Structure formats: C-alpha cells, structure tokens
Amino acid sequence: MPGITEVFKTCHYGYLLHVNAMRRLTVILLCLLVRGTSMYASLSDIFITPDSSLTDAIRKAREMRRLGKANEITIHLGTGTYFLDEPLRLRPEDSGLTIKGTEAVISGGLRVTGWKKQGKLLVADVPDYQGRPVDFRQLWINGTKAIRARDVSDFEKMFRIRTYDKKNQTLWVPKNAVEKIQKAPYAEMVLHEMWCTSNLRIKNITIQGDSAAVRFHQPEARIQFEHPWPSPMTPNTEHPSPFYLTNALELLDEPGEWYHDIREHKLYYMPRQGETVKEAIVPVLETLVEFIGSAEHPVRHITIQGITFSHTTWMRPSEKGHVPLQAGMYLKEAYKLRPQIDRPNNHKLDNQGWLGRADAAIELRHTENINFESCQFTHLGGSGLDYIIGCKGGSVSKCLFTDIAMNGFVCGSFSPEGLETHLPYQPTDFREVCTGQTVEQSEFYDVTNEDWGCVAICAGYVSGITIDHNTIHDVSYTGISLGWGWNRDLVCMKDNKVHANLIYNYAQHMYDCAGIYTLGNQPGTIISENVVRDIAKPSYVHDPNHWFYLYTDEGSSNITIRDNWTPEEKFLKNANGPGNVWENNGPQVNEQIRNNAGKR
C-alpha cells in the first residue's frame, strides 16, 4: 500500500489500526498514553474521548513541544462530557496549544444517582468525593438548574425588614417570615440592599411578639453591620429592603426545589409535574481551568474553540457569608470613617473597604493572547471567564454565557487585596494591568442569577479593552460595567472601547444601575453606537426611579459618550471628573446605528 509506511513514520507512539481499501484508503492511527489513556495522534494533533485524561493529553502535548517534535499542537476533544477531579492547569510550557471540541463539555460536576421516592420528594445519597463529604450550592436536573429551597417562589412576595440594629448586629423581621426555620441548622438569608445582595448565614432566631430577631454568623455579621455602603433600606423609607430565606428542608415545598442535608449526605428534590430524573449533577469544583504564568514567563498563544464549560460552584457564602461592595466583589473588612478623609481632587471619603473576588470557571493570570472562540459558559456557580492579572491581549469571540450565578466575563483588577478600594491603582509594574482584551459577537443572558448585584461584562482597572457587538439581556443588574475606584485621579485605565452592543431587559432585580456604567478616570475611552432599552420593573427595588440607560458614576473622567441609542435621555452623571464628552445620545440617533447593534 503506497504511502502507508510514510504516514506511519510520522506518528510516534502509534500503530496502524484499520485500512479500508475498497474505494478509498483510510488510515487511523491509535496512540497510547501513559497510564493506559488512549488517543489518536500525529505530530501536531492529539485526539481524545471522554474516557481519556485531559491532564495527560496536555502533558503529552507539553512533552512533544519540549522535545522539538511540534511547536503548535491541537488537542481534539470528541463528543461527550469530560469530568474533572481538579482544575486543568495551563502553564508557560503549554504555550502554542489549541484545544478544540466537537460537542465537548468540560465539567466540574458529580453525578448523583439512586433516587428513591419519599412522599412528594425524591431522595438520593450524595457520594463522597475524593474521600470526603461534598457540599455544593447548585443542582442541575436534566440540564436545567433546580431551585435551592426558599420561602418564596415569587420574589414580588418577599418579606421586608423591620429594624436594622447595627449596634447589636441584629436584624428584626416579621415573626411569620422565619417561624418555619427556627431549628434549621444551615438556613441563610439573602438580603436586598440598594445595588447588592448579601448572603448571611443565620446563627439564631428569637421570637418577640409579632417580630423576630435574626442574628448571623461571623465574619459576615461584623461586615454586614459595619459597612455603610450599600446599606439596607429601613422601614422609615418608602421601600424597606426585602429578603428571602433559603437552604432549609422546611422550605422545600415547590416543584423544582432541592435541599442538601450535609450531615446525613442526603439530597432531596421535588420533581416538576411529570418529570423523571434522568441526570442529576452537583458541582464539586469551583474552577475548571487555570492559566498560571508570571510577569517574566507568561502563558502565550493558546486558543480554545467550541468547548462548553459547565458545573462549578463557589462555596465562600456557605463558609463565611458574602457581603459585596459592588459587582460581586466581596468585602473582607469595611467600616465608616469619623472624621472623614480629605482627598485632594475628590470629595471626602466616609468609609474604607478591602475586597476579595469570587472564583470563576476559567481564570487567567499573566498571559498573552489567550483566545476563546465559539465556547459556551453555562451552569456555573461563580463567575464565568476571568482575566485576573497581568493579561495581555486575548479575545472572546462568538461565545455564549448563560445560567451563571455571578458575573459573566470579568477582566482586570478590582483593587488588589492590599489596596483600600477607593485609592487610585497605578502599579509601578504596568505588566500587572490587563490590556488589550476583546469581547465580541457574544451573547449574555440569565447570568447574575444568584448574586443579583453582578453584571454581564465586568471590567475593572483595564487598558485598551474592546467590548464590541455583544447582545446582553435578562440580567439582574447592569449590563456592562467599566472602571473601578470611585476616584478622579489618574490611574492605569485608558483607551477602552464599548461599541455597538445591544442591552435590554436588564435590572431584573436591582436598581441604581444602567445598561452601561462607568467609574474612574479613563483617558481615551469611547462608548459609542450602543443600544440600551427595555429595563425591567421589579416592585421591590429601593428607589423605583433610580435607574438609567447610561450612567457615568463617581470619578468618571475623560470619557467620550456618543451616538448611543436609548428610548429617552435618562442618563446620570454622578460626581464626575473633567473631560467627559456627551454627543448625540438618545432616541434621535440614526436608525442604522440602532439596527447594527448587538451580535451579528
């Protein structure tokens, strides 16, 4: 057979498996990996299936590159779900790699089987994972997210707080709101406060008359009652803050709800009408893929195409509570200042805070040109994709972000842990700053579905980012948030572009928001030809008039906002710095611009 020997010689570790010589010659080369993992390979291509090890495939590609057998290697993932037992870690030695998928899902989940009927409920044992009991905050049944048991199915019917006692770190609520859960060991309260929601683990409940005093565990109790912004609205205001209760078996009373009894390793689920549980997945990982470089040795030129990333959780709210400042960035310490701090070029500062950042399914640190094409980020319990620090270039193109608990796409610093969040961030080593990322032709919807204060696209201290022709809809708060710091001082932000995005049905749960929102001094930044329309109308927001299509918030400076179509000129310019230019924004904008916005 002419040519077979020649083809065979190009494949190390391989042998001839099958030849069909009737009408055409088909050569399939089967390659054997270490520890029995099988894959089909040539010098530059590695083919794997769901019963193969992704870690082994990445290591094999790394070795091929190290030994000079190939510079650019593609790993092809066949159809199916690849369950991980730890995050994949891509390092500088993996530079030049491409990972492609054909209906391939990379999952951080664990299947739960063996369901038994118990009255109206189905019950299953939750197996140990890696030798330990597992806890989680999400469950997917037949590919649909189930509802963690809560006291209301309709958020319009949430109870309202009565008294907010900062001194005694006690929240007073109606008695009938909490009677059911007085003995529930791990119940939580989700408290609505202006532009954020807090997750508070309930420590105890004391009934007095028609009211109840609710106290919470530390550290969130201290943070919640000491931090001034955002604050809950008390009954002396027109719209006192609502709340809902969750994570108690006593609240499991609606089809589609679930509860995990971690002490007994039991998972309870109330099926929907006519529903049969064919697949139940709980998340056991918080992150699926980590890109780990350094300023001197970044991870370079990796492309991921056509992969779905699914089934993560984020466990901090179960362990330490979750009290955010904004956009899901949680407070580690925060308190009011007396006297206030004088800040030249800015108004006085009445509070201090230091922040942490939620985990994401994909996290990048010190990278160059890491690209995602036609990928899906779905069924995620933290954020989706996060360019955290020191990332240069990289594009997210034609991707889908949906069913995500927190932010969809995240990029840049939101104040380093050691920097008080209102201080200007201008690092000595500019390599820390995320620069030159692109998010384009992608769709975001049903993101922020647990932490309502998160956003679809969340960019902090960034430079040269381009957010272009995306469609964003059905999100809890703001669509695109650009900038950070509440400060007019010159920082590392500059030359950002937000162009031709379509944003609608935003603010499903929170106000003090906009379709596009900015913070800080950003010379050269242009926001142009976007379309923002159709804000949601939840009845329980703190101020029903405090929403906007475009919103330049504190410190926003040197930004050009032009040719953006909105149904009316409902904009806010709050405590802005100099140099902002507003040109031709509102319903009069050219129809062609309106029709051109969004994913094409």
Secondary structure blueprint with pairings:
Layout: H1 4-9, E1 14-16, E2 29-32, E3 38-41, E4 45-48, H2 54-66, E5 73-77, E6 80-83, E7 88-90, E8 97-107, E9 109-111, E10 116-118, E11 121-125, E12 140-141, E13 144-145, E14 147-148, E15 159-160, E16 163-165, E17 170-174, H3 175-178, E18 188-193, E19 196-208, E20 211-216, H4 220-226, E21 242-246, E22 257-261, E23 266-269, E24 280-283, E25 289-292, E26 299-312, H5 316-320, E27 324-326, E28 329-341, E29 349-356, E30 360-373, E31 376-380, E32 383-392, E33 395-397, E34 400-404, E35 409-411, E36 434-435, E37 438-440, E38 443-447, E39 457-459, E40 462-463, E41 466-468, E42 471-473, E43 480-482, E44 497-499, E45 502-506, E46 513-518, E47 521-528, E48 531-535, E49 547-552, E50 557-562, E51 571-573, E52 581-583, H6 591-596
Parallel strand pairs: 4-5, 5-8, 6-8, 7-25, 8-26, 14-22, 25-30, 26-30, 26-31, 30-32, 30-33, 31-34, 32-35, 33-37, 34-38, 35-39, 36-40, 37-41, 38-42, 39-43, 41-44, 42-45, 43-46, 44-47, 45-48, 46-49, 47-50, 49-51, 50-52
Antiparallel strand pairs: 1-2, 2-3, 3-4, 9-24, 10-11, 11-23, 12-13, 12-24, 15-21, 16-17, 17-20, 18-19, 18-21, 19-20, 22-23, 27-28, 28-29
Write up this protein.
The chain contains 6 helices and 52 strands. By secondary structure, it is mainly β. It has a 31-stranded mixed beta sheet that branches. Strands 15-21-18-19-20-17-16 form a 7-stranded antiparallel beta sheet. It has a 5-stranded mixed beta sheet with strand order 10-11-23-22-14, with no helix packed on it. Strand 2 and strand 3 form a beta hairpin.
